[in-house]
Amino acid sequence: MATKTVTFDPDSGVPFGVNLTVYGGSNSVTNLNVVDVNNNNYNFSAGIGTTGVTQDWSGSGQISKSVGAGSSSYANATLTVGFTSAYGGKVKLSLGSTATAALDQGRYVYDVNVDSGSTIFKLVSGNVYVYSGISSAP
After folding, report:
1. Cα(78)–Cα(132) distance, rounded to whole angstroms?
2. For residue 1, what pLDDT band results from cuts at 50, 70 and 90?
3. I want to staple 73 with a disulfide (CB 3.0 to 4.6 A). Which of 5, 29, 32, 66 is the partner?
4. Do the Cβ atoms of 91 and 84 come closer than 8 Å?
């Protein structure tokens, strides 16, 4: 289980770059410690929606083999995105063993979006390297 610290600046419109490693046939979990530009834990429990009312944050993420121009690629896997401590800026990305086993070895790309109400932000993006499993489950 890897833990990465990422800086989230919603005003910049630019996701933080984080590369991931996945081992086929195993559960994959990456914990993100999300901080703001002042290096304080990002408070995902304080989202303000378009109506000015506090909104809960949610997240989504996908892995794809390619996203190049003219690519007919589609999402090869969907990441589960959870807030383990919304107030403390803790986000968990996970992919189950069945999903990782279905990925061929090689390089993929991914991104994770978070939203509060109707506003969507790209939190992180990067490469995913998938290593094929050799052993089967006992």
Report:
1. 18
2. low
3. 66
4. yes
Q: Where are the domains of the chain?
A: 2-131
> Over 90: is that where the pLDDT of 119 sits?
no
DSSP string, 34-101: EE-TTSSBP-TT-EE-TTSSEE-EEEEEEEES---TT----EEEEEEEEEEETTTTEEEEEE-HHHHH
Asked whether the beta carbons of 109 and 116 are under 8 A apart, the reply is no
DSSP-assigned beta bridge partners for residue 84: none
Beta bridge partner(s), residue 114: 59, 121
Return the structure tokens found at 35: 């901080």
CATH class for the region spanning 2-131: mainly beta
Query: Which residues is 5 bridged to in the sheet?
Result: 33
pLDDT for 17:
96
